[in-house]
Design goal:
about 190 residues; alpha+beta; 4-stranded mixed β-sheet; 4 helices; 10 strands
């Protein structure tokens, strides 16, 4: 698929993203939050996406704007790359076991954004990343990407493992849903809007 480049500058963040679907997982990511970089690298690799991403955010405040705004921009890029829904599988589901943790993602590239997020964290942070921002990232991704997105923690203890399993599961499910398909829009209505 084609690559898309999006830039977004506000008083809180300055973001530059180049995203290609159906890639090899090649990344160059710098958000200023090491753990978030690690999660986005896993998301891209497991989602077969090539991603160049630079985020300059107001980390002197906290990581919220950096993480949420990155989700907004990634969602916008996905919406543009997947605007023609007549040639994709639409649905994707994937479960990722990571040691003692298991997280499942079900998604629909529907054009109707919705998030169901059922994960609980034991700690406030993983490195410099606030665990609660996981929900904020995926909400922004779903709302701006036009995704119906369900992320379910089946079980787990280690927050790092649970969060990483979530990013990987969403990446895999997205790659499955965005895979090519012949036969027109997969909808009895004949359209997805």
């Amino acid at each position: 698929m084609d690559a898309i480049t999006i830039t977004r500058a506000t008083k809180e963040t300055d973001i530059s993203l180049t995203l290609t679907l159906g890639g090899s997982g090649k990344t160059r990511i710098h958000t200023g939050i090491g753990f978030f970089d690690h999660m986005l690298t896993a998301f891209a690799l497991h989602g077969s996406m090539d991603m160049e991403l630079t985020v300059k955010g107001d980390l002197e405040v906290d990581g919220h704007h950096t993480v949420e705004d990155t989700g907004i921009v990634l969602g916008q890029a996905l919406a543009r790359l997947l605007a023609d829904k007549s040639a994709i599988r639409r649905y994707g589901s994937f479960s990722v076991p990571m040691d003692e943790s298991l997280v499942t993602c079900h998604l629909d590239i529907s054009g109707r954004p919705f998030l169901v997020f059922r994960m609980d964290f034991r700690n406030q942070t993983c490195g410099g990343y606030d665990c609660c921002l996981t929900r904020e990232f995926f909400r922004a991704l779903a709302m701006n990407g036009g995704l119906t997105l369900h992320i379910l923690e089946e079980y787990g203890d280690n927050d790092h493992h649970k969060i990483e399993a979530a990013y990987k599961a969403v990446g895999h499910a997205l790659a499955l849903a965005a895979a090519p398909r012949e036969g027109g829009v997969l909808s009895t209505k004949g359209t997805l809007e």
